[in-house]
């Protein structure tokens, strides 16, 4: 599942600022253990803002309304108590090239900020944290104790601290081609990995899209690139930075065929897309609804398969037991006839005998019973009696 990167987050925030500021917060509902939905109303429209701290699908976008039902989550109750009826007046990143967004909330538009709702879209460490005007934590979707993290504990009453700052260089439009190429090619190796390690703000999906747009192989090595290859890639790099600066995005889905089947992804830069979308909000809501729905389906399918497999194993064990009983039942009548014959002629038995020849009741033919010489006939198990017909 593709994760929201810096570029996608900026595209989503740009649209939110354009269409949903200022907005009144009318309702807060927690859809599941990773997702909050906030009902926003402007003078023109009403919609639901999705805030997710899912380890694989953390995001911030307008989405579908939550299903009706009882909301028993403590986090949403705390948010409702503090934020219902207030106004969303700002949507800003806390720092350049950081995937942490500050939803600024106040009593009314153009008033002071009374609350900060921080959405940290940082993969498996994603979180949603509410603080007051002094940045003191009031509640958090996921609290982190000092035992869990000495670097950055997140507890009610603590002063909010942003995630550790990135130290990689910041991409800029003013950087020359020669300086950029020198940085990326400083250590020979995979072009993809060198880009990811050299600059901040990049994701694996974005780099692969850049390489595809520049007509380069995904396994391309830096020492194998020709001058024209570097020039094409640098032009794509500049297009990316220009889109971020001017906030001009082209959202859409792309689909590729792999050995494992079809792979679905998205881009907000218009590269390699096969299904364009009108806005980033609809794109993100549609993509993650599909992916999370498929993930849930696969989990349920696996659980059902495991239960069916375990039940089949139990039934197979029972069937084997019943089969053994049926096999034994086929010879039960023979053993009964032999036992009756032996008991009817018990007076002919002598201790230590291993065989005893008697006349069959029905046919009158002689039959020989094999006996256990160490047991009395009355205690001899039926399977120990074998018939030898003369």
Write the layout of secondary structure elements.
Elements: H1 6-19, E1 23-32, E2 35-41, E3 46-52, E4 59-63, H2 74-83, E5 87-93, E6 100-106, E7 115-120, E8 127-132, E9 137-140, H3 177-184, H4 191-198, H5 204-213, H6 227-246, E10 252-258, E11 261-267, E12 275-276, H7 280-330, H8 332-344, E13 355-359, E14 366-370, E15 386-389
Antiparallel strand pairs: 1-2, 1-5, 2-3, 3-4, 5-6, 6-7, 7-8, 8-9, 10-11, 10-12, 13-14, 14-15
This entry's quaternary arrangement is single chain
The level 1 CATH classification of the domain at 6-166 is: Mainly Beta
Look up the CATH topology of the domain at 6-166: ibrinogen binding protein from staphylococcus aureus fold
**How many angstroms separate the termini?**
79 Å
Major sheet: order of its strands? Answer: 4-3-2-1-5-6-7-8-9
Structural class, judged by helices and strands?
Answer: alpha+beta
Shape: elongated
The CATH superfamily of the domain at 6-166 is known as: ibrinogen binding protein from staphylococcus aureus domain
H/E element sequence: HEEEEHEEEEEHHHHEEEHHEEE
Average of per-residue pLDDT values: 90
* Major sheet details: 9 strands, antiparallel
Please state the second-level CATH architecture of the domain at 6-166: Roll
Number of helices: 8
What Rg is obtained from the alpha carbons, in whole angstroms?
A: 37 Å
Uncertain segments of ≥5 residues (pLDDT<50)?
381-390
| SS strand fraction | 15-25%
Helix percentage: 25-40%
Give the strand tally: 15
């Amino acid at each position: 599942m593709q994760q929201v990167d810096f570029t996608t987050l900026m595209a989503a925030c740009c649209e939110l600022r354009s269409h949903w500021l200022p907005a009144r917060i009318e309702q807060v509902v927690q859809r599941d253990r990773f997702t909050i939905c906030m009902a926003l109303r402007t003078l023109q429209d009403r919609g639901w803002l999705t805030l997710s701290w899912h380890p694989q699908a953390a995001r911030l976008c307008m989405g579908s309304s939550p299903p009706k039902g009882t909301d028993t989550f403590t986090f949403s109750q705390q948010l409702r108590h503090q934020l219902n009826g207030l106004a969303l007046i700002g949507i800003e990143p806390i720092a350049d090239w950081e995937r942490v967004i500050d939803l600024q909330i106040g009593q009314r538009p153009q008033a002071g900020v009374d609350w900060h709702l921080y959405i940290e879209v940082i993969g498996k460490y994603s979180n949603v944290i509410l603080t007051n005007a002094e940045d003191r934590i009031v509640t958090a979707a996921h609290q982190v104790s000092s035992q869990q993290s000495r670097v950055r504990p997140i507890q009610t009453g603590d002063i909010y601290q942003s995630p550790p700052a990135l130290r990689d260089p910041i991409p800029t439009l003013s950087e020359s081609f020669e300086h950029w190429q020198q940085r990326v090619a400083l250590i020979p190796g995979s072009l993809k990995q060198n880009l990811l390690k050299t600059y901040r703000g990049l994701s694996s999906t974005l780099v692969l899209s850049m390489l595809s747009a520049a007509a380069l192989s995904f396994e391309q090595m830096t020492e194998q690139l020709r001058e024209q290859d570097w020039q094409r890639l640098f032009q794509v790099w500049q297009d990316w930075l220009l889109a971020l600066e001017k906030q001009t995005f082209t959202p859409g889905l792309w689909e590729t065929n792999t050995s494992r089947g079809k792979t679905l992804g998205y881009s907000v830069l218009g590269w390699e897309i096969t299904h364009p979308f009108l806005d980033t909000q609809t794109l993100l809501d549609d993509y993650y609804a599909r992916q999370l729905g498929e993930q849930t389906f696969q989990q349920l399918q696996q659980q059902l398969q495991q239960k069916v497999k375990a039940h089949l194993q139990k039934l197979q064990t029972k069937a084997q037991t019943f089969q053994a009983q049926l096999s034994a039942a086929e010879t039960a009548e023979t053993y009964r006839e032999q036992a009756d014959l032996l008991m009817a002629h018990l007076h002919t038995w002598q201790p230590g005998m291993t065989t005893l020849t008697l006349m069959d009741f029905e046919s009158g033919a002689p039959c020989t019973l094999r006996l256990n010489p160490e047991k009395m006939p009355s205690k001899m198990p039926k399977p120990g009696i074998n018939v030898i017909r003369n």
